[in-house]
Design goal:
With 598 residues, the chain is mainly β. 5% of the residues lie in helices and 59% in strands.
Length: 598
């Protein structure tokens, strides 16, 4: 079977091309690396961007899965695709990476395992921006290792899009998106349903997402609101402990945001309010649910106002923020934690130099005030080449689970200290005609890191401060576009990470489960047949103290007017592997679908 597939790919690879796909090598604007929008080329931070056109060509069904195709992002999945996963950026774990929708903090106070329970389907996304390195200067807690900002799309015209997809393991998905565009306001409605019988015992899932977005423009000002709901019920075979294959979990997420953007001559004011509600219903053993059954409810209320103003001496941004986090749980108890703070950022240009300096000042209930300064510097060597450097401090208080959780498999710790880190980075970004590349060297010094490690008896995991970790690495990304060649576009990325432990060795559950080597190759081409397009992905990875792994995915599509037919194959060579010990991931998974734009 492998030989047949390989020959098929070779035949496609060397097919003659009649059409040339387009790839935007211009400078898209990024908004996550600072409070001042800047072009991708001239950003003084390492940023990766995945836009809606690229998202549509990935063999995925959810935002969560799409993150795996952003270079430098390490997505550690459990069970079926899109069910549950943790994010790792440059060795920073799932609790240390901030997830946002349109700039609003979505991190779950119960546990970072729920951070990717997003109330958005894939077709509601305009682009995904990933800023790597400490982001606490801008966004406060939870941004030690980086920030993932999901930017929702705007309705540009009246349109109804319907997508139907089916595949192995009785997978079925329906997506609908309705856009209504009027003179000064727009409405977007979206619906997503997906389900599967699972690839192994107790890996089935049912997922529902509903959402709405509204935007209103009046003179130079804007206002908008967004609301979404997600319900997912899934089998959690060995998710949290290898001795329990019949774990079950059901989560519900509700998200609401309202904002106003007031634009004056040299001044912009952006107040916003938001609310995130999350229910987590977990059973350790479905054969005897009364033995261990947890129910957790968390609520996060927040408000903030951002003020940006420009002068002859540069640009200044001020932010004031308030958040209240609450949990009601039959296991963790009832707790709440308030966070209040502000941040300031100043950016100015001198000849070919651009400097951005700032700091956040947050007061955390139980830990007092924390100051997180940072500095970014960019030097424009040529019009198409930029050198940059940055440094910043990160901070994260323990989650409610790390503090209070208690089960036969895992136990929290009331005596945990907050995590702290300092990041350093230097890099360059260059673009010439149809070729572009970026290179970054980085280092993180972290102390009081929190990890789960086996107690002396080896019977359960215990949350503890593990001391200091130093992480160093390098990232390289290159892109080429070819004219009149058998390959239209090629992208190559490589990330290397090494971690130095400054304490006695121990069995780590999360902190040392990052990739040491991560290489990806993406090839795109048309097939010599009008409107046919193929994209395939090769990934090589090696985790610390684990075997090497090579994976391949394929996306094939045919566009005819307003109808798109596509086929996705993930794990093409049917490799058996796992991101977490004793939690196997699917082998080859075939899916096929059709999309209508009406």
């Amino acid at each position: 079977m492998k030989k047949v597939i390989f020959l098929f790919l070779i035949q496609i690879l060397f097919a003659q091309n009649e059409d040339l796909i387009t790839f935007n090598l211009k400078n898209p604007i990024v908004v996550s690396a600072s409070r001042f929008p800047v072009s991708f080329l001239h950003s003084a931070r390492s940023v990766a961007v995945l836009d809606s056109a690229q998202l549509a060509q990935l063999p995925v069904t959810s935002i969560q899965e799409a993150l795996e195709y952003i270079f430098g992002v390490d997505l550690l999945q459990r069970g079926s695709p899109g069910v549950q996963a943790d994010i790792n950026l440059r060795g920073a774990g799932y609790e240390q990476v901030l997830i946002m929708i349109d700039g609003v903090n979505l991190n779950d106070p119960q546990t970072g395992h729920h951070n990717l329970n997003l109330t958005l389907p894939l077709n509601a996304v305009d682009r995904i921006e990933v800023m790597k390195g400490a982001g606490s200067r801008l966004y406060g807690p939870g941004a030690m290792g980086g920030v993932i900002n999901i930017i929702t799309r705007k309705a540009k015209k009246k349109n109804l899009a319907l997508t139907f997809k089916g595949g192995d393991y009785r997978f079925f998905e329906t997506m609908a998106a309705l856009d209504l565009k009027f003179n000064n306001h727009s409405h977007s409605f979206y619906l997503n349903q997906s389900s599967s019988a699972g690839f192994l015992h107790n890996t089935d899932f049912k997922n529902y997402i509903f959402g709405y977005k509204n935007e209103l423009t009046f003179a130079a000002h804007k206002a908008g609101l967004m609301a979404g709901f997600k319900n997912i019920d899934f089998g959690a075979n060995r998710f949290y402990h290898p001795s329990f294959p019949d774990q079950r979990e059901k989560t519900q997420t509700t998200f609401f945001k309202a904002n106003v953007e007031l634009n004056f001559k040299n001044l912009q004011l952006t107040p916003k309010v938001f609310w995130r509600h999350h229910n987590d219903d977990f059973i350790l053993d479905a054969s005897r649910p009364e033995w261990y059954h947890n129910k957790h409810r968390t609520d996060v209320w927040g408000s903030e106002i951002v003020t940006n103003f420009a002068s002859l001496w540069g640009q200044t941004s001020l932010l004031a923020s308030w958040r209240l986090k609450q949990i009601k749980s039959n296991n963790l108890g009832n707790h709440q934690r308030a966070e209040i703070g502000f941040s300031a950022e100043y950016q100015f240009t001198w000849h070919q130099w651009q400097f951005t300096i700032g700091s956040s000042f947050f007061n955390y209930q139980g830990w007092g005030w924390q100051v997180n300064p940072g500095l970014d510097v960019a030097f424009q060597l040529r019009s198409n080449c930029v050198l940059f450097a940055s440094t910043g401090k990160g901070f994260r208080p323990p989650s409610f689970t790390e503090l209070y959780y208690s089960s036969p498999a895992n136990k929290g710790n009331l005596h945990l200290k907050p995590e702290e880190s300092i990041d350093f980075e230097i890099g360059s970004r260059w673009q010439w005609q149809q070729v572009g590349w970026s290179l970054a060297l980085f280092q993180r010094h972290a102390k009081n890191l929190i990890d789960w490690k086996f107690d002396e008896t080896g019977n359960y995991w215990q949350a503890q401060n593990i001391g200091r970790l130093n992480t160093r690495g390098i990232e390289l990304n290159t892109q080429w576009i070819f004219a009149n060649f058998f390959i239209n576009k090629m992208e190559f990325a490589y990330t290397y990470l090494t971690t130095q432990r400054l304490k006695t060795d121990y069995v780590s559950k999360y902190a040392l489960n990052h990739l040491k080597h991560q290489t990806s190759l993406r090839l795109s081409q048309n097939l010599g047949i009008p409107h046919f397009f193929l994209q395939w992905f090769l990934k090589y990875q090696q985790r610390l103290d684990k075997k090497e792994l090579i994976l391949a995915d394929v996306h094939l599509q045919w566009q005819f007017k307003k109808v798109l037919v596509f086929t996705d194959i993930s794990n093409l060579f049917n490799r058996h592997y796992e991101d977490f010990i004793s939690v196997p991931l699917p082998g080859r998974w075939f899916k096929m679908g059709v999309k209508f734009n009406l």
